[in-house]
Design a protein that fits this description.
- By secondary structure, the chain is mostly beta strands.
- The protein has one domain: Hypothetical Protein Aq_1857, Chain: A (Sandwich), CATH 2.60.300.
- 13% of the residues lie in helices and 40% in strands.
- It contains two helices and nine strands, in the order E-H-E-E-E-E-H-E-E-E-E.
- Strands 3-2-5-4 form a four-stranded mixed sheet. A three-stranded mixed sheet has the order 1-6-7.
- A hairpin with a 4-residue loop joins strand 6 and strand 7.
- The longest helix has 12 residues.
């Protein structure tokens, strides 16, 4: 007796879309636009992650004249920001903001990948 089995290929799994690598709030875009228009005209902001602090990682921001071959280019709100490819897995879905407080102002990051921060807020871990 001969048994025939028909193998039907399984339907292709639909891949879930990844969140954007990074987005900017209106406040961050406004501040960055001001920096690009003034002292940092012609340069691009590169965001990376370094080993630092008691929790292990910290955000690193630097200016560059040209993107490196390993940079991811993020375009949001008609602005361009570079992300070091080595940092991209740590930053997927991050929102960059700019906050002005009574004693300090600066860029902040709301990162859904963070599992915790050190007490002083200088470093984080994923």
């Amino acid at each position: 007796m001969s048994t025939t089995t028909s193998s039907t290929p399984a339907p292709a799994r639909k891949m879930r879309a990844l969140p954007p690598l990074m987005t900017l709030t209106d406040a961050a875009a406004e501040r960055l636009r001001g920096l690009y228009d003034k002292g940092e005209q012609g340069k691009l902001l590169r965001i990376g992650v370094n080993t630092k602090g008691c929790s292990g990682l910290s955000y690193d921001m630097s200016w560059t004249d040209v993107p490196a071959p390993t940079d991811e280019v993020v375009k949001d709100k008609d602005l361009t920001v570079l992300v070091d490819r080595k940092a991209s897995l740590f930053l997927i879905g991050t929102v960059m903001d700019y906050e002005v407080k009574a004693l300090a102002s600066g860029f902040t990051f709301v990162n859904p990948n963070e599992k915790g921060r050190c007490g002083c807020g200088e470093s984080f871990h994923v």
